[in-house]
Amino acid sequence: MTTETALTATDLRLLAEAGGAAPSLHNSQPWRFRPTPDLLGLEVHADPRRAVPVADPDGRALHISIGAALFNLRVAAAHLGREAGVRLLPAGAGVQPCAVVDLSAPARAPEPFGKDLYRAIAARHSSRQPFTNRDVPEALVADLISAAQAEGVTLTMLEEHGVRRVLALTSEAEGRIAADLTRESETRRWLRLEPSYDGIPLAALGSHDHDARVPMRSFTGHPPHHTTPAGRFEALPQLAILTTHFDHPADWLRTGQAMERVWLLATVHGLRASVLHQAVEIPDTRWRLRDPADGPAHAQLVLRLGYGPPGAASPRRPVEDILDTPQA
Question: For the whole prediction, is pTM greater than 0.85?
Answer without folding.
Answer: yes
